[in-house]
Amino acid sequence: MPFQAKITRARFVLGPFTSEDMLEIGNVVVESIKGRLHKGLNINDQPAKPLKPGRNGKKGYPDYKAGRGLQPFRDWFWTGRTLRSLKVKSASENRCVIGFIDPNADRIAHVNNIRERAFGISPKDRLALTAIVRAVLRRARVVRVARAA
Fold this sequence. Notes:
It is built from 5 helices and 5 strands. It is of the alpha+beta class. The protein has a 3-stranded mixed sheet with strand order 1-3-4. Strands 2-5 form a two-stranded antiparallel sheet. A hairpin with a 4-residue loop joins β3 and β4. The chain is elongated and about 65 Å long.
């Protein structure tokens, strides 16, 4: 069963965003973060630290990645499980939570983020966030009455 973000609803929405709007905003930010991580960029939109090469004639992690046809730099991708589990966990009128839905992927991301901060909102991610918020605000009404499901 695929993961579904938890959407909470309210009878009266007094802000400009609904739960569905926040879910859309969160999904755009998630895709921006995934794209940046896939390019091997850190939270400052700079190239990530290089992976440690092998020592004493032994293969290192970049060699193993290149042998599998993967990019030999820090892009958080080996099997794809970690980045596949990066989702919008919950969305409400006030808040959107982005994170890793798989506990093992969450642990891997936590350790990788300690090595070098890469998970978060970078300047280019903030531009994507600003663009989607403005687009949603253009089509949203200020006060909306919604039915609770």
